[in-house]
Structure formats: structure tokens, C-alpha cells
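Exercise (ungraded).
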Amino acid sequence: MMRFIIEKRTTKSKYSVFIVPLVSFAISLLLGAIVLAASKANPFAAYKAMFEGSFGNIRRIQYTLREAMPLLMCGLAVGIAFKLKFWNIGAEGQYVSGAIGFTWVVQFWTFLPPVLLLPVGLLMGIIAGGLWAGVPGTLKAQWGVDETLTTLMLNYVAIGYAEYLYIDHWKAPFGNMGTPKFPDAAILPSVWGRVHAGVFFALALVVILWFILYKTRWGFELNMIGKNPKAARYQGVSIKKNIIMAMLFSGAIAGLAGAIHTSAVAQKLTTGVNGNYGFTGIIIAWMGGLNPFGSIIVAIVMAALSTGAGQLQIALKLPEAMGAVLQGLVLLPLLAGSLFNEYHLRVIKKGAE
Amino acid sequence: MNQTQSAEPIVRMENISKRFPGVIANESVDLTLMQGEVLALLGENGAGKSTLMNMLAGLYRPDSGSIHIRGTHANIQSPQDSMALGIGMVHQEFMLVGNMTVAENIVLGMKDLPFVPDIDSINARIIELSDRYGLKVDPQAVIHDLSVGEQQRVEILKLVYRGADILILDEPTAVLTPGESHELNNIVKIMLSEGKSAIFITHKMDEVIEFSDKVQVLRRGKTVNICNTADVTPKDLANMMVGRDVLFSLDRCPYNPGGVKLKVEQVTVNNPLGGRPLLDDVSLEIHRGEILGIAGVAGNGQQQLAEVITGLVRCDRGNIYIDGMDKTNNTPLSFIKAGVSHIPADRGAMGIVGDMSVGENLAMKKYRTKEISKGVVIKKNFLRMFADKLIDTFSIKTPDQGTSVKYLSGGNIQKTILAREIDSCGGILIAVYPSRGLDVGATEAVRQNIIAQRDQGNAVLLVSEELEELQMVADRIAVMFEGKIMGTRNVKDTNTEELGLMMAGAVSRGA
Amino acid sequence: MMDFITKLLAATIAMGTSLTYATLGEIYTEKTGILNLGMEGTMLMGALTAFATAYNTGSLFLGLAGAIVIGAIFSAIHAFLSITMRANQVVSGLSITMFGTGLANFLGQRLGPQTNNFNLVGMNLQSKFNNIAIPGLHKIPVIGAFFDVSLLTYALYLIIPFAWFYMYKTKYGLAIRSVGEAPRTASAMGLNVARIRYLYTIIGGMFAGLGGACLSLSFTPSWNDNMTGGKGWIVIALVIFATWNPGKAVLGTLVFGGITSLQFSLQAAGFRMVIPSQFLGFSPYLITFLTLSILTIANQKRKSLFSAPSALGTSFAIDEK
């Protein structure tokens, strides 16, 4: 008779950082292949089609990159909160708040000269997103209100409010759904086909976040708080202030993402404003190991799964939803595997005690 | 005291030894308990009392030796086995579910409970038992509405309800008021008259004298003596518990204290859970160039004292002055900036961030300064140099300054904390159990470092469980008991006996 | 007017049935300390499985059975990751929702008849869970709506009181509550914390699947992409609003279900009353947010006001401190 025990590690595994994510990704693809096979589709053909759909030609690559941008930014936003072990699952709502803020400026601040619309709008997006995250952040810091549930609830408040705005209050007088289209001055210009100027913001944020987290005193303190809040407090670090600041920052990034995407892609506030980037951002943050540079790769992979899925529909007449299936599947084996970072398996033969 | 004595002891532990990594908890300990008797297990922290009783209660298993209950050999592998033999233990930290009722807590997990427990009959039985033993508890009360004393009674009821007749109480009066302690004594007396037996773990003299028939003194895992309570005096017990006078002291500069650096004035910290205050009207002064030792068994307020002086805990009354300036209830950062360094009791939980590197941990006090940062940026090379210097000076054994500190041995973790706090000390060093768990060499080094700080003119507060250490290192000693300072003496003017008495709660002859 | 209210109540009850099943399930799960944010995905998979099975076999009850099984499987995955693998419960739950939502939408376009390109969207069942009126009682104004409901709802009239009874009056409910509140104590008293958490997480998933089935087999007997439309998240809110008490779950369901139904009626009628319909739409979330915040802040003084299981979302291991 054998028994398995899960024990805490006493030495760090050198391999787990690389092997675990790779093996998990492989397992996810395998599971996805099973789903495909079970629904009478050829997994190889399907994966090939998805790859072509996301990277097959220049235009598709641009599309994938364009989709990767809000994903990356939301991943960064969520990542900074997660570093503090603050479970911000409200990135969706913060993203939408940013979109709302941007729209407000562009549609109503008519006193502004056109050249200022874009910068001020983006700024308002940042502020709106920041505030939307600052509220649950303050509630947690000051009174210990559980952040998982508050940030989650606020998502739907923001989404619902946005709906009110683009269906009702701010709706364009004629035409279909949504607010009036933004004037050209308020639209982020493209830099390479479908890829718009937001890419600079996204990459700049990666560098900025990396710098803050790994190089500055504030990053050092955030690290301490996330890994051992008791010790951080003992060293004089103010937990309350840092939670609030980190949340403001987190929401601001998500808000900026919302403002950018609305400006460059949707070009008005309308249905589909949230696009699930906030939730997917959580997965990206987690998979990227809370490392800003890692998040770039993961964001592109996730975007590829999404854009590639469109090709499934066209080429193989398979439902596009397969992309979402894979996105969800990608994390599950990784979650299981992350156990091995902290623990290892030990086999005990009965009688050997 | 009662007369029902059968020839066979109800509990016989024979030649029990238990070892944990790096520490011998119990060595060849024998223990006998007769039916209807109350045995007190007396000793300082680390003497091995709790470990010994945890083996009876099924939480640990002895490395060698045997246990006999009512004459038969017992193989106790789990708390359930222990319960089945009629043994029940009330731990220092109660095992109760806060938002459930007394009745629910008492029957939780019982195997033969019906699908729909008959609350009425359970309540009735609880009331019957509580009347019988004077345990006064309302079965329908919710646990978190009860006082600490009442919660303890629920724990005892839990054992009795499940048929325990050998009761083990671990430091039962630790958080009780004197009135509640007397009540507890009465409860135990009633139980004895019914044929139950009890062992209680304590470090308090008056408890031993008042509650027990027999007392067994443990020291460093071994039995020192077993006697009838009626035959010993508090002085004898103190000597047994604490050991002989220390014959030598370490090298140091002559004692020449400067002005008062740190002043604690009538500080009281209440216990949020009720019961007696954690710190009770404590006043003391530490001068520059002086080591003030705090003696006393752990759990008598020493940790709270250290935390109040470092801003980690608020005091409900009183003031704290550093260099004459009022720092009462300031933030931890404010105390750090006032020059306070703190080597905490809870080194793993508070003193280090396990997942960060040795270097980063070493830098945690000074990362805000020019030694390590330039503006907002932490310069990695500065940090590395800084860390390497400290690793060298304090002989910290680590593969690299970049290794995660959690992989270091306990002794080296303590060295890391020590290095950091001593290096950044700006006038006041608070060291709480600094040599706990360290080997002889490391302990030597710790003591030398502390003395060096004092010689440089810093004010040092040293909290220690070992009187020898204090007698060797400190200039003055204050003894804490139940949150109060029992007395303060110059080391040269006192002896082990007097200090031991104060540690165990005997009244002092003037502060 | 009465007629409108009665119709509104009927719609509320019908939608509320689905929500109540899922809420009861999640209450039990969370009471043991496990947070399952995979609700939305599980419910959608339940709806799909029920519909696909019923469509392809002709049996409504097989459809229900299928939904229950799928709910169990999905929550078992979450249980395995959260309990045995000690993964982060928030991330695990969200991944399962994403996976479940995608899978449901995917299969919804693969399990249909060849004639419709394998698409289940737009297909009709031969039968659905129709309303069964209790003679006499169903004619009472307003309240009568409670007596003219589907079998699934009638079942709830028995299940809800039993769920409350089980939680607060039986020894198993006692075990559940202790595990979610103080797992270390529960373990010391001889309870197997992991086993209890597994059991009720899986049961919770079964109920979530049932909740989804109610939608596709009774409420709107059809299948559509994303037909749960976020109800899984409302369920999470309802659990908080019910303060984790199965007895109170109905209250929240009626209130929130009523608000949603009102919103639909208003939207359909093109009304723009004092409160825009979208506000009604997000009001359950806003109310829950405010309730949660206020209760937690007030709870600083009095401990018994708020009853979130203390160990919710944490992992527990016997061998660790």
C-alpha cells in the first residue's frame, strides 16, 4: 500500500518556472483537440486554420496585435493589483468607465479645440477607470470589505450604465445603436494598417510597470505587502495607502485601455464596449506570472486564439466559440501545475514510518 | 483532596522521549497520575510541558517510551484515540467555532449524533452537566458573545460531555481574571470529587499551591523533581524551575548609563477578547548605554510591550516618550525614523519576507536611504554590496544574497534579522527572544552584538526567557507577570531565587 | 393593474426558479468555504446539455439528468483545483466560466440536426415543462401565480425548506457550517474538511446545472448563445444578499427576479419611466455592492451581523500551520 503526500518544498525548483507553463499549454491543446475530435472535427486542421486565421497574412497579424493591446493592458492593470494579493476582478468595469469618460469628453466638452480632444479624453478615461477601482480599494483598505465581490459587482454597474448611455441618454439622433461617431480628431490614428497608436501606450506601460515593480522603492514595498503584509507593516510600510494607490493605478490602466480601444476601434460608445477584455486580463496576468514582459506573450497568444477562431468558421465551418473554449482551457492545467512550485509529491510506503 | 486512590495510577507515562529537528523536547520523562488527583506540571517555556501533554492528547507521538492508561498499554495515534480513552485537553488557543452556539460546538463531529440532533435533550444534558460542575453556561449562547472565561468553560464542558475523565488543562488561567481562576479551581474540585483526574500545565506559583496535590517540575525537557504540593515552598519551586545562579558574565564596558532614551509611562493594553489586560499599567525607563532585560515566562505581556514601543499595537492608556518626545501610538514608520530597531519574537511571520531574497530582506530597513536607493530607484548593485557586507560581518550562511531567505536555516534567518536591525539601529534596540533556537556559537554572537550596541551608547531592551542570559547580558532586569512589572532590579543586586519568585507571580518586596 | 402584477409575478417566479436552484447550490458551496465563480459557465453548460439531450432523445427528464451530470463534472474540476491542488479559487472559477461559456456556445452549434447545419439555435423541443395549474388555488388574485407554475418550480417549494432545514437543523449542516467558518477546529473535532468541501461543491454545481436547465427547458424552451446572459453573476450577488442562508435565498430571487422582469416588460413596451430600464438592470449588482459594504463596515462593531463564512476562498491543509 502506498500513500501520496503533498509536502512543502524546501528548495526552489529551477525547472518549474519554465516546464510547468509549457507542459500546461501542451495539455490544454491536447484537451482542446479532444473537444474538437469529439465534435467530429479534425484537430490538426482546426489548429492549422486557427493559426492561419491569426497569423496567416499581414492584415491578420495586424488584427491579432490590435486585439492583443487591450488584453495586454488589462493584464497589466490586473497584474499590479494581484501583486498585492488584491483580487481586482473589476477590470471590465474599470475598462468601461474609461470608455465612458473618453466619450463624455469627446461628445460634450465642445469648448475644447479639436487637437485637445484626444489627450484630454484619454486623460478622463484614466481618471474614470482609476476612480472606479479606487472605491473598492478604499473600502478594502479602510474597512476590510472583501474586494473580490465588490469589484465583481461594480463591473455590471458600469456595463449597465454604459448601456443606458448609448441606448438612451447619449444616443445619436439617427442611425443605429450608440453615441454619435467620434470626430476624426478624437480617433487614435493608425500606425501600421489595423494597428493603431495605442500600441505605444501598451508597450510604454509594460516598460513603466516593469520599472516600477522591479526597480523602484514603491515596487519593493508592493512586493513586500503581497508576500508578507505583517512584515511589511513591521518595516513601516503603510498597507492602507499602498492598496489605495495600487488600485487607483490599476483602474487607471484599465480605463486607459477602454478609452484607447473605444477611440481607435469602435469610434463611438456602443454595444460590445466591454468585449470581455477585463476578465481575460485576469487570466493573462495570472499566466504571465505577474511579470509585465511575460504578459506580452500571453496577451498575443490569447488574442490569437480569439482572432484565429474566426477562421475556423470560414474555413471549416466550425463555431467561433472554440476560441473561447481554448482561452478557458489554457489556464486550467496551469492552475493545477502551479502547485508544484510550492509543493512536491512524496510517496510513502506503509510500514516505513 | 479526596481519598479514592486505587493502587494502579490512572495515567502512567514511562521513559518518554521526544525530539524535534534541532531540539530535544522531552528526555526520559516519567509521569504518574493517580485517580482523583490534580498534578501540576511546572516549568518555563521550552521546558517540555506542552509537548508531553500533547502526546497524551494524541497530537504527537513519542519517539520512545510508553503510555499506560488505567493499567493497560495505550497506543494513542490521534486525538480521537485519546478521547476514546477518556482523555481530554483544553489548549491555550480554544478550538471553538465563533458563530455557532455552545451546544453546537459541544456536539460538533460526534460520531453517534442522529441525523437531526435533538437540541432539547442536548441542551438538557449540557445544563445538567453545567449545574453539576458549576460550569454556568447557556447552551444556546453564541460563542463570540461569550467572555474568555465562559469560552473556557465551554471547552471543559465539551470534554466532559464526551465522557472525558482525565482532563489536561494547558495554562488555563493565562487569560482569566483572578475571580475566574477561583471559579475554575472550584469546578476542578467538584470534578475530582466525582472521580475525575486532572493535569494542568503552568508556570505560575500560586496556581500550583492553590490548585494541585502534586507538582512535577520540568526543566529543559527533563524532570527536575516531583513532590507533594504541601511539602514545598514557593522558593523551592522557583529554584527548581529556573536553575542555579550564573557564575560568569561577558566582556563589556563598565556600566555608565546616560540620560533616559526611552520612557514608558503607565501603559495599558486591553485584551480585545476580554479578560485581564495584556499590559497593565506598565512603566519603565531605558537609559543610553544600558541593557534593560525583561524576564518572565512568555505570554505575560512581553510581546505586547515590544509592539507598543514599536508602533505595531495601540495602547489604550499611557504614554511613550523617546528623547522626551511623545511618540504614543505613532505609526511603525515614525518609530523607525526615531531610531528604533526591533528584532521580533515571531521571526518567520514578521521578521522576514520568506519569498524575497536574503539581500532584499537585509535592505528592508535601509532601502529608503542613499545607501541603497538613488531617488525612487533601488540600485541593484548598491543593494548587492550592502548585502554582501552584512553577510560577511554577521557570518550568514547563504549560497548567495539572491537566494530566497526562506531556504535558510532558522539560525541564519535570525542572523539576517539581527544583521539588518543592528546595522540600522539609530539609538534604541528592542530584541525579543533573540537567541531562541540558535546554537551555542550563534547565541554567543547575538549576545556580543547586543552588548556592543550598548557599549556604543544605544539603549537596549532585551526580552528573554532565560534568566541566565539576562543575568549575563543585562544591566538591569524587570520581571513581567500577567501584564504587570513585578519589580525592577540591578542585576548585581538580585539573584535567581528572587527573580524566579517574581516570574512565577509571587509578590515583590517593593518595586 | 392586478393582471399586470400577476403576470409580472408569474414571470418573476419562472425566471426566479432558475436563479433559486443555482443560488441554493452556491450557498452550500460557499458555506463550506469554497468560492465558485464558475457559476455562469456551469449554468450555461447546464442549459445547453439539457436542451441538447432533450432535443436528441425526446425526453425532458433525460435532459434534466444531463444538466445535473454536467454541473457535477464542471464543479468537480473546480473542486479538484481549489481543494487538492490548492489553486487560487478566483482564477479557477473564472477560467471555468470562460471555458464553460465557450464550450456551450461551441457545442450549441455542433449538436443540432444536420438539416440546420448542426445548429441547435432556433430548434424547438417537442415538449417543455409546462405550467400546471392547481385547480381553484390558481384563480386567487396575485398569489394565484404561485399555483400555476411548472414542475420544476413546484419541486422548489419542497427543496427550499429542506435546504434550510438541512443547513440549520441536521448534523450535516452543522458540519458544513463549521468547515466554512473554522476549518482547523472542524478538523480537530474529527471532520474531514476536504471531503465535505468536495461534496458540497459538486452538489452546488449540480444545482447550477439544474438552474440552467430550467432556462432552456421551461422558461424559454430553446437554445441561444449565451442564453444565461450573466445570470450566473446575479447568483453570486444573490448568495451575498441572502447572507448565505438558504431560507433567505427566495427573498433575493423574488426581488431581483422581479426587477429583471420589470426591466424586460418596460423595455418591451418601450417605456422610459422615471428609472430607465438599464438602471433596473444593474440595480441588483449595485444593491448587493452597497449591502456588502455597509454590512462589513457595520460588522466592525458587532460580530454577529454579517455571516460570510470566515474561511471563504482560503485553502486548508492539515499539515500546515
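Further reading is listed at the end of the chapter. For now, observe: Chain A is about 70% helix and 5% strand. Chain A touches chain B through 21 residues (CB under 8 Å).
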